[in-house]
Give the backbone structure.
Amino acid sequence: MRTRTLRTTFTSLLVASAVTVLVPSPASAADPGQCMTSATGRSEDLRPGRQLAPGTSLIPTPGKAELVMQPDGNLVVYAPGRPGGYKLPLWSSGTYGNPGAYALMQDDGNFVVYRQGGGPRTGGALWDSATYGSRANTYMAASIKDNGELSVSGRSEQTWRSGTEEWHVRLCSTDPSWSRGLWAQSATAWLVLQRDNNLVMYRKSDGKAIWSSGTYAGRNALNLEMGDNGNLTLREYGLNGTVRWSTGTGGNTGAYALLQDDGNFVVYKKDGGPGKGGALWATGTYDKI
C-alpha cells in the first residue's frame, strides 16, 4: 500500500451516517467566533530554470503546507500535521513509481515532472501544468502558499491551480461554499472535501479516517455549504443542485458548523457554541482522536 499518495480510495468503504450527537465533549475548543476563509499567508516560488530535485521540498513557512518532490517520483502537496508526525496529502501529480523523477519550472511557462534522465530536450514528461503559451508574462513561477494552494503562472491565458486552499474552521451561511479540494484543520483533525466527492475527517495522530459523509463517486461535483436555514449540505454543482447529503438541521437561521480541537465537527444554533450548548448535529468523533 502506498502511504504517500492521495488517500481517497479507502474512504469509500465508510458509510454515510448522520449521527445526531447533540452533546460535544467538555474538551471542545473555544469558538473562533468568525465566519471567513483563512488568509493565504506566505508563498515560496520556483522560478523558470529552477527544479525541485528528488527528496526536496518547497516550504513557505515551517509548520505550514509544503510541496514535496518525493523519491518515488510523486509531486505532492501536504497539509501540515503535528511536528514530526503524519502529514495529509492534498494533491499529487500521480507520478509515483518513477524513482529519480524531478519537477522543473521551464522558461516557456510550463511546470513539468520529468522522469530521471528526461528533460525539455530529451522528453520523458510524466505530468505538466499545461501553462506554456505565447502570452508575455514578466513573472512566471510555480508557487506553494501557506494555505496549501499550488499555482502555476506561465505563458498561457489561464493560471493552473491545485484547488487545495485551507479554509476557516467555522463555516457560516455568509461564507462561500467549499468546492472539491478545500480543507480545514483543528489541533487534532483535518476535514477535507475530496475530489471523489467524499467529505472526510482524518485524525492528525496517525492520518486515519474517523468519519465520512459517504458521498464518494457520482458524475457531478459536490459543494459543501451552510444554508441560510441552518442546514449543512453537500449539493451537486449546477442548475439542479441536488442534495446528496445533509445534517437535517433546517429551520435554524444563523446556524454554523465548527471543526473543534476535540475532533468533533458540530452544527450549532446561532447563539450556541462550545461551552454554551445549542448543538444541533455532530459527527460524534470527540472520542476518536
